[in-house]
Design brief:
The structure holds two protein chains of two kinds. By secondary structure, chain A is an all-alpha fold. Chain A is 73% helix and 2% strand. In chain A, the strands form two sheets. Chain A has a two-stranded antiparallel ribbon. Chain A has a two-stranded antiparallel sheet with strand order 3-4. Chain A is globular, with a radius of gyration of 25 Å. In chain B, helix 4 packs parallel to helix 13, helix 7 packs parallel to helix 8 and helix 9 crosses helix 10. The chains are: A mainly alpha, B alpha/beta. At the A-B interface, helix 1, strand 2, helix 10, helix 12 and helix 14 of A face helix 1, helix 2, helix 4, helix 5 and helix 6 of B.
Chain lengths: 610, 427
């Protein structure tokens, strides 16, 4: 009995940290609609700043708590600076474009933090006066964790007072409910947003600084927390502080007791929980229905146009690409092969985002399933390459068929997080099912047979298959199917009223996108010779998103340009410098600022003016 | 309105790699001059080389895990400088290294390996830290018939179940390190054991070997609890509590890095280590022990690297050279990087050739003198006999270190040649 109580208390301490970080995220999202990928970076830098201050001043209780507060405030200032310097310039861009900007910030912060604090883990001081433990029913329990348990509700209470008893809080709530009406009433949204970013990032920094006495500060903290914070926000219901609090409590307890029942479940527990909650409740535990679900499209979108001479241009490009092996060396061909595969991967995601208005955070699931489909056929059945390649889209399509049925019943960020949950579930299966998938050591020896082993041959094969599929995807975009999909994106209600079964179209689009991504994955497996769970993991999904957004979502060619630009940038910068994340991040931020509509969006806009 | 040629931009970009390939080597040479190993070497009297340089392509997770890979890089840089100062390889040729980051992803590592082989014309591949990346590069090496010296990956698969003709591994494997610890664990009176290990192949095979080998020596032990935290996301409080609830006599720990620090802090706070013996993999390595400063655990039985106490002349010389060169003390990664590069050079010199097959033949059975003693790459399974130091952790002068240690020669903790050969796929 005493053991269970202490276990529950441990869960509460975990929950407190989770709540601090996710409350900031939910506030920022609720008001500004910004999906702030960099939230975890503020948490990490908050921890580093807290570590430095606590090392110097943390000898006394006043010094320690002062240091924590100072670190939190510093993160708030940085967050406000990010709003003024970057995000403010993007409010007129497609909503998800800010996500790309914050992703650039994540990369920059990773390298700057490594540069400023060095690569080694830093173990900070313990909180003065709270070093020991007290016995709770004969079980020792750390004092500091008790303080954390108290801090959670305290912060929740303070936030409640701030939002319900101050003018600023009232304005923020008004803006959360109806941004446009608030600004029509004379409230400067920009200033409000700066304040909200300050508050949100300060909370992230507070969460980070409070970790110093509990664990060492590392460069991996940002990614570790940001996904979990998103889970809490979505489970709780976006924009709902009480929801975030409740979700943190539940997840904390789930982790504390889950490991007693089934220790191996740690990998996937929170995502399973999120999937269940989202399947049962469309807006999380305490979220409310949104009048306008956030989509990838801005208020004023240029309708997708077929382009008058797209056909001849595409053919010319294809011919040029097909001639590449005449001049390009082996490595250039390999890079081109990857670029072509990734172009298909990005285009398949664009089908969902651009046409369907459905932003997926878990598109890597279908890419990876395709790769695994091929690899498993080769490994377990000794299948020849053509058969294995055919298996890739089939497995991915089947996976998407199942997951899609659940996902298309949700919209906006709930949809996005549900796709992420499915991706994580698939990932954890690949990661843990050693007998079949080889676990994290992957499947080796998936090389093309003799006839396709030449770099040029495999490149042509890739070009043919990807080119053909891309052409099909383009046909889809301008076929009645594509128009129906876009109708559902622009106004679900009106589309339904003219007899379009929006959900069914979205489901079919989901399956189609998954199938196409699966083919890309299968080709990728044979290009690399091995398959690992990393192909299914979050960074792979993020890469796809970045490619689509970089190219611009309003054109069919956008994702292709994005894939080319992102992959070449990444691989070339990576081989030139150890600081490639800094360089890549700065380039992304610059691109976002210069081309707020994506590369191709910018080019076509330019031509329109000319 | 007109989407006349939306493809103009990708076209231009697509044509770039060919041009980039040509400019890349120039840029690289510039980068090497400022940051690379070539810079330091030019300080002394330049050595005249009569033959063409031999090139090593080196890949590691420099941005993914800098705390471990940067000491490793400094280790091989030191070795490289020494090799070239002493006349290079085969007595005629400069040894050059082209180093690349793999971003912690196996597919990036394979692309980088391809780039090194085709664009940089390297003769040997070396490096890697993560097991899955090591395996991906090993498979690439076999496919392209390139010798590959895997420096740091620990998985047994790389030399056994997925071993191949072209891949050799230096660092003592998971099996070897577990076997070293079992020898000590079997001497303890403890009968009830609990385990805590990160939830991936390394943790799982470490626990599996530990259980199997300990049961062989001590049929009376039982394993009463196991915890499998996610690597990097250990929920310290609940995990510690769950282990304590099983009331084990001893605990086998495989967590490392940030998880280990959390585990130690929370375990101390909750009295988990009181009156219990802890046996812990790799915890004696300075990479893991030093960040914990005076909170490093006391009395744990560990494998590690007590660099400040090893007083063989060869090792003292290494420490002196390393600290003089980099103004910091060596880590376990440093010695691994150092021996890796020395082994590569020795293999090339023994082969008297920069060609793949002679180098592979030379690596099989190659013995070199290293700062930790003689190391042989076994011809049977391509595993090196580099050992590890087994001892007890302690805190001295406010920092963690090891005491009562001994060098466990890897040769004594490997299955016999025949048994090892049987675990490898037929060639």
């Amino acid at each position: 009995m005493s053991f269970l109580l202490v276990q529950a208390l441990s869960g509460l301490a975990t929950a407190a940290t989770l709540f601090l970080v996710s409350s900031g995220l939910t506030i920022v999202f609720g008001v500004t609609r910004i999906v702030n990928f960099a939230h975890g970076s503020f948490y990490m830098v908050g921890a580093y700043a807290g570590w430095s201050l606590i090392e110097r001043f943390g000898g006394t209780p006043a010094g320690f708590w002062g240091s924590v507060a100072a670190a939190a405030l510093a993160m708030g200032v940085l967050g406000a600076a990010m709003e003024v310097g970057l995000l403010r310039r993007l409010y007129r861009s497609p909503e998800l474009f800010q996500l790309l900007g914050t992703f650039g910030i994540v990369l920059v912060v990773q390298d700057l933090t490594a540069w400023a604090w060095g690569p080694e883990d830093l173990l900070g001081r313990r909180a003065p006066g709270l070093k020991g433990s007290i016995d709770i029913l004969d079980q020792p329990f750390p004092l500091y964790d008790l303080v954390l348990i108290g801090l959670g509700p305290l912060v929740l209470g303070l936030l409640w007072l701030l939002f319900n008893r101050t003018r600023w809080g009232t304005l923020v709530r008004a803006a959360t409910q109806d941004r446009e009406m608030t600004s029509a009433l004379g409230v400067d949204p920009a200033r409000l947003f700066t304040g909200v970013l300050f508050l949100g990032c300060a909370l992230a920094g507070l969460g980070g600084a409070l970790q110093v006495p509990r664990e060492s500060v590392t460069l991996q903290m940002d990614m570790a927390i940001v996904v979990e914070a998103f889970v809490v926000v979505v489970v709780g219901g976006m924009g709902s502080l009480t929801g975030a609090f409740l979700a943190s409590l539940l997840i904390g307890q789930l982790q504390a007791f889950g490991i007693l029942v089934f220790p191996q479940i740690t990998l996937v527990l929170v995502f399973l929980f999120m999937a269940v909650v989202l399947v049962l409740r469309p807006h999380g535990l305490l979220g409310r229905a949104e009048e306008v679900p956030p989509t990838a499209t801005a208020a004023v979108t240029v309708p997708l146009s077929a382009g008058r001479h797209a056909g001849p241009w595409a053919l010319a490009l294809l011919a040029l690409l097909a001639a590449a092996p005449l001049v390009a060396g082996d490595y250039a061909l390999i890079l081109l092969t990857e670029v072509v595969i990734l172009a298909l991967f990005a285009a398949s995601l664009h089908l969902l985002i651009g046409l369907g208005g459905l932003v997926s955070f878990g598109h890597a699931a279908w890419f990876g399933l395709g790769a695994y489909g091929s690899a498993l056929l080769v490994k377990h059945l000794g299948a020849p390459m053509p058969l294995a390649l055919a298996g890739a889209p089939v497995l991915a399509g089947l996976g998407a068929l199942v997951a899609g049925w659940f996902c298309v019943r949700r919209s906006g960020l709930y949809f996005a997080m549900l796709t992420l949950a499915f991706a994580q579930i698939v990932w954890s299966i690949a990661f843990q099912w050693y007998a079949v998938t080889g676990g994290d050591n992957g499947i080796l020896g998936v090389w093309p047979p003799g006839w396709a082993a030449g770099k040029a041959t495999y490149y042509w094969l890739t070009l043919g298959l990807c080119g053909g599929t891309l052409w099909l995807l383009r046909r889809v975009a301008f076929a009645p199917f594509g128009y129906a999909l876009r109708a559902g994106r622009d106004s679900g209600l009106r589309a339904e009223s003219v007899g379009i079964d929006v959900r069914r179209f979205q489901w079919m689009a989901f399956v189609l996108a998954g199938t196409a991504a699966g083919l890309a994955g299968g080709l990728y497996a044979f290009a690399k010779g091995s398959v690992f769970p990393t192909l299914l993991a979050v960074p792979q999904s993020v890469d796809a998103l970045v490619m689509v957004l970089m190219g611009g979502i309003q054109t069919v060619a956008g994702p292709l340009a994005g894939a080319v630009a992102f992959h070449l940038l990444e691989s070339e910068v990576m081989s030139l410098t150890d600081w490639w994340r800094l360089v890549l991040g700065l380039i992304i931020v610059a691109l976002v600022l210069i081309f707020p509509k994506g590369i191709v969006g910018f080019l076509s806009g330019f031509r329109r003016r000319a | 309105m007109k989407h006349r040629h939306p493809t103009a931009s990708p076209l231009a970009k697509l044509l770039r790699p060919a041009a980039l390939g040509a400019t890349l080597s120039v840029a690289l040479a510039a980068a090497a001059l400022t940051a690379g190993p070539a810079a330091a070497q030019s300080a002394k009297e330049p050595v005249k080389f009569s033959g063409a340089p031999v090139r090593v392509g080196e890949i590691n997770s420099y941005t993914g895990l800098p705390a471990f890979t940067i000491p490793y890089r400094q280790g091989w840089q030191l070795a490289l400088e020494e090799i070239n100062a002493e006349g290079g390889v085969i007595g005629c040729c400069e040894l050059q290294v082209v180093s690349r980051d793999d971003a912690g992803k196996p597919d990036d590592a394979v692309r980088v390996a391809q780039e090194l082989v085709t664009n940089e014309a390297v003769d040997v591949l070396a490096g890697t830290y993560f097991s899955h990346i090591g395996l991906a590069v090993a498979d690439f090496a076999a496919r392209n018939k390139m010798p590959f010296v895997a420096a740091e990956p620990l998985t047994d698969a790389i030399t056994w179940s997925k071993g191949n003709r072209y891949t050799f591994r230096l660092r003592p494997s998971t099996y070897m390190q577990a076997a070293m610890l079992v020898e000590e664990a079997a001497k303890l009176p403890a009968k009830r054991w609990a385990t805590v290990a990160p939830n991936y192949e390394y943790g799982q095979s470490a626990v599996a070997w530990f259980k199997q080998l300990l049961k062989e020596k001590r049929p009376d032990v039982e394993f009463v609890a196991e915890q499998w935290p996610v690597q990097g996301k250990l929920e310290a409080g609940p995990t510690v509590q769950a282990l304590a609830a099983a009331k084990p006599d001893a605990i086998f720990n495989v967590t490392f890095g940030a998880d280990l620090a959390k585990f130690v802090r929370e375990g101390e706070g909750r009295g988990l280590f009181r009156n219990r013996k802890i046996v812990s993999l790799l915890t004696g390595e300075p990479e893991y022990l030093e960040p914990m400063k005076d909170e490093a655990p006391e009395g744990w039985i560990v494998t590690g690297y007590p660099w400040d106490q090893i007083d063989t002349p060869a090792h003292k010389a290494f420490v002196a050279a390393y600290t003089a060169r980099f103004k910091e003390s060596p880590k376990a990664g440093s010695i691994v990087g150092y021996i890796t590069m020395k082994a590569v050079a020795a293999a090339i010199t023994k082969a008297k050739s920069a060609n793949s097959e002679p180098i592979v033949d030379a690596l099989a059975g190659l013995t070199i003198d290293s700062p930790v003693g003689p190391v042989t790459f076994r011809a049977s399974d391509h595993q090196a006999t580099m050992g590890a130091y087994v001892g007890t952790t302690t805190v001295k002068d406010g920092r963690g270190t090891m005491k009562d240690w001994r060098y466990a020669d890897g040769a004594n903790y490997l299955p016999p040649d025949d048994a090892a050969r049987k675990m490898r796929p037929a060639e």
